[in-house]
Amino acid sequence: MGMFWAYVPLSFPFVDAFPERAYHRPMAIHTLLFDLDGTLLPIDQDQFMHAYFGLFVRKAGELGLDEKAALSGLQAGLKAMLTNNGEMTNKDRFDSVFSQVSGIDSTRFNEQFSSFYQHEFHQLAAFAKPSSLANRIVETAKEKGYRVALATSPLFPAQGTEARIGWAGLRADQFSLVTTYETYRHAKPHWHYYVQVLDELGVDASECLMIGNDVREDMVVAEHGMETFLITDCLINRDDRSLDPYRKGSLQAFSDFLEELPPCTL
């Protein structure tokens, strides 16, 4: 996501942005984990988050709540989810910290705020630049027999996540798993977020390929034995790390790469 601080040995070429560096590596991949924002959904994440905060605060004001307090609660709640230790879901962590910092009862707030992701939130689609490649990639992967999951950092409720999936021209039911804050207990880049994804899918890291645009949040899985593909269209590299270790390219390049993969027979 990147916006708040994604049995049978096979051998095939992996091509990054530099074709001359194509190489072969034996792999046993049958599950593809996709990030959403900046990956399947090209988006200006800085503009998106700035506008999201503005809409959130405006909605709070319309509900008769203190806007400054609501903003402080939102910021603290997001930070709390990013550092969640797993003792509770991200939703429960957010609600607890939001109430503590803002002085606004989270239960009452959630009831009043329930329509936000159905209505106002969709204004933020203006910052997205959906690509027809997203649906083609997901469907091609499934047609080839690969399992497809949406590993987006679970900082939004299901409604907000499903909205963004829709902006990408996709549907939640196209994925075996979609991660949201109601059930997840960590956020990217925490490895235990990915552990929960793997556990729910019943797979090992070595059986997955993570596709994402954020070096810190998505490529961290490489340290734990998972293969990766870094999408460079909306690249986020806050730490200015070398990209040499990563298979990489545009969303179009990944689409081409996927076309060359042999069918998964598992």
The major beta sheet can be summarized as: 5 strands, parallel
Annotated CATH architecture of the largest domain = 3-Layer(aba) Sandwich
Query: Order of helices and strands, N to C?
Result: EEEHHHHHEHHEHEEH
Write down the overall mean pLDDT.
91
The CATH H-level homologous superfamily of the largest domain: HAD superfamily/HAD-like
How many individual helices?
9
> Count the strands?
7
Strand order of the largest sheet: 4-3-5-6-7
| Count of domain modules | 2
Helix fraction, binned, reads 25-40%
Taking all Cα atoms into account, the compactness measure Rg is 19 Å
Per DSSP, what share of the residues sits in E-state strands of 2 or more residues? 5-15%
Q: Looking at the structure, what is the overall shape? A: globular
Give the N-to-C terminal Cα separation.
Answer: 29 Å
Care to describe what's here?
Helix 8 links the parallel strand 5 and strand 6. The protein has two domains: 167 residues, HAD superfamily/HAD-like (Rossmann fold, 3-Layer(aba) Sandwich); 80 residues. It is an alpha/beta fold. The strands form two sheets. Strands 4-3-5-6-7 form a five-stranded parallel β-sheet. A two-stranded antiparallel ribbon has the order 1-2. It is globular, with a radius of gyration of 19 Å. Helix 1 packs across helix 2, helix 2 runs antiparallel to helix 3 and helix 5 packs parallel to helix 9. About 9% of the residues have low confidence. The chain has nine helices and seven strands, in the order E-E-E-H-H-H-H-H-E-H-H-E-H-E-E-H. The two termini are 29 Å apart.
